[in-house]
Each structure stands twice: as structure tokens, then as C-alpha cells.
Specification:
Radius of gyration: 12 Å
Helix content: 25-40%
Largest sheet: 4 strands, mixed
Order of helices and strands: EEEHE
Number of helices: 1
Strand order of the largest sheet: 3-2-1-4
CATH class: Alpha Beta
Strand content: 35-45%
Number of strands: 4
CATH architecture: 2-Layer Sandwich
Oligomer: single chain
Length: 73
């Protein structure tokens, strides 16, 4: 299983994230880390879905099974 590095920052009310291999993709939200992880996956899935629909390139790692590894920034 491939590992995706997610750069995560703790904010006063929640979390923010970026993924180096997805230029322009960012996520910010309030709430718990469990909620953040769920929103993170939904956001990645939507990004890839739209890239496919638009014929845009995206990293092929997202076509298979992958795991998010969190890197605190």
C-alpha cells in the first residue's frame, strides 16, 4: 500500500492540511481530528474525481490503495 504524506497544522479551532503531490489542494476545518480525517478523505476523493472528469493529470497513486501518513508542520 502506498503512503501519501499529508502536511497537517493544528489551528486554534481545528486543522489545516496540504499534500505536496497535489498542487493547489488545501484543506482547513474546525472540529476534532477524527472529523478532520473524514473530511480529508472526502476532499481528496472529490479532487481526484474532478481531475478525472476534466481530463487533468493527477498522481497515479490515487488509482490504487493508499494510506495517509500525517506530518505535523
Amino acid at each position: 500500500m502506498e503512503k501519501i504524506i499529508v502536511n497537517v497544522g493544528k489551528t486554534p479551532k481545528g486543522y489545516s492540511a496540504s499534500i505536496d503531490i497535489l498542487p493547489g489542494w488545501v484543506l482547513g476545518m474546525t472540529g476534532s481530528f477524527a472529523d478532520f480525517k473524514k473530511e480529508l478523505q472526502e476532499s481528496i476523493d472529490l479532487y481526484i474525481e474532478w481531475a478525472k472528469e476534466d481530463g487533468d493529470e493527477y498522481p497515479s497513486v490515487f488509482d490504487g490503495e493508499y494510506e495517509c501518513k500525517f506530518n505535523s508542520v
